[in-house]
Design goal:
CATH superfamily: Dehydroquinase, class II
Bound molecules: 1,3,4-trihydroxy-5-OXO-cyclohexanecarboxylic acid
Number of helices: 6
Oligomer: single chain
Helix content: 25-40%
CATH architecture: 3-Layer(aba) Sandwich
Number of strands: 5
Strand order of the largest sheet: 2-1-3-4-5
Radius of gyration: 17 Å
Largest sheet: 5 strands, parallel
Number of domains: 1
Length: 162
Amino acid sequence: MKILVIHGPNLQLLGRRQPTIYGTADLATINQGLRRLAAARGASLTIVQSNHEGDIVGLIGASKGRYDAVVINPAAYTHTSVAIRDAIEAAGVPTIEVHLSNIYAREPFRQHSVIAPVCRGQVCGFGPESYRLGLEAALAAVSPRPPRAVRATRAKSKRVVG
Ligand code: DQA
């Protein structure tokens, strides 16, 4: 499984940037955690940070056939970029949107994501944990179905008696 993680503009400043909102973990630490999780799941990660909308559009446009899923924090482009939204829609690669902060509890201009409707889902508000949950969601979205015997065992263990 190959997953592309994209960090949008200003996220290279994490750790120093408004720590009361975005936390004290820097991007290298967040990436380390993601790499550890991916390795434990046998997935390979490519991680990119860019401050440029066109670069992000290009990465997403080239993702089909190269990656099984994309995890993206579009940062400020979340609220403005029809170009990134169109790239995600056109590529058709399962994409999970993540945010460190709870964008719905912030300024009105942050409360709308133009990206979310073309994503499988969105995780926001959990600090660096949002990325971990986003990667888990991406892995779950692209994991091959477990063999029939495993599915049957799981279904049995879910049944509740009483
Ligand atoms: C952010 C939220 C955005 O509104 C903001 O522009 C960011 C970071 C987040 O992770 O909480 O740069 O995407």
